[in-house]
Design brief:
Elements (H helix, E strand, L loop, with lengths): L2 H25 L11 H4 L1 H11 L3 H6 L3 H15 L12 H14 L3 H8 L3 H23 L6 H15 L4 E11 L16 E8 L5 E9 L12 H7 L21 E3 L10 E2 L10 H27 L11 H21 L11 E3 L4 E3 L10 E2 L10 H14 L2 H7 L4
Helix pairs in contact: 5-6, 5-8, 6-8, 7-8, 8-12, 11-13
Amino acid sequence: MSPILSKKAKVALAVGTIILLESEKKKKRVWVKEWLQKREQFTHLRLLKCIQSCEPLDVINYLRMDYDAFQELLMLVKPLIEKKNTLFREAVSVEERLLATLRFLATGRSYEDLKFSCIISPQLLGRIIPETCRAIYNCLRKKYLCIPSKEEEWLKVAEGFNNMWQFENCLGAVDGKHIKQPPGSGSYYYNYKGFFSVVLFAIENANYEFTYLSCRTNGRISDGGVIKKTDFYNLLITDSLKLPQPVNMRGIQNKLPFVFIGDEAFSLMTNFMTPYRQTNSIGYEEKCFNYRLCRARRVVGNAFGIMANRFRIFLTPIATKVDTVDDIVMACCVLHNCLRRKSTSYIQPSNIDTEDIISGTVLIGDMHMNGELISLDVSRQGSPTIDAKMIRNGYKEYYNNADYLLVKISTY
């Protein structure tokens, strides 16, 4: 090789080395942004402790629960979400993980927005929050969310509806709501209302508590078909729910079965009562039955409203991956049940829709002021069976029976 070529080769090698080093320098990034490294200094965990010491009542507005409930929940989820520190960085603490999750559920803010108060990157929040939601659900569901499995448990639910809402043999109020997804969630979730959604199907007891939930139905399914996509429906039509046997009712010739109740979005079945359709030909007796049913069914609408105003993630499109929405929704629902039982102040009389007995009008609660979940539309399915119609007529006759009115009038 000639000396000239050798010199050129050396120059080329040197230039190439410089270019490579400059390129590597540009690619090199810090492990985490500098201000995110100061989590201990700026995180809202410090703010929470300050609020607790100065204004304890404000903790409820901040977390949607009091400080004692937060600490109790923290102990439950800790084994499931705690991470170990590494040689490279300190793990996000259990307290910060739970606090970030509760703020996300309470405000509905995006990960990108939440990072400034949590001092946690959006990418990490995208892992922390779904994981913590799953932990919350798994820790609480056995105690606070379980459908009755024995006849005596169903009878207790029916007793609650009779005592509180004067509707007998009722095993639960049923409803469904659309949970908005962000645009771009995929045509599979694009519904006929013009937005992306999944449907939350729920059954409530008389005390505003969920007893069954399903959040796996995509928004494209017709509202009337939502129930058929649930495990509950399969158990109902195969007589696998261990429901109480039909009973004799005062003044009614045939025994009437225990029933679930819903609005016109669902189909009338032998164990599922819906109102008579509002037409010009509807009579007084049908209106009386509808009044009774709608009065008892209002409990599920109130529960949805209360939960959506406590956890405002429901009032905005949930900007997460589709497969994590179920974790988020189920965590909110089981927290709702838990707080409903533990806190006497969780539901205020002014929050819910109530009835003015004298005027016969419904007084709208505060829960509607900040928005609400979108309901299912009226079902246009086929005609119900003759047996289902006969059972509804039996309940209609019962609620128009003079003896019944004399017995129940004192409870209003």
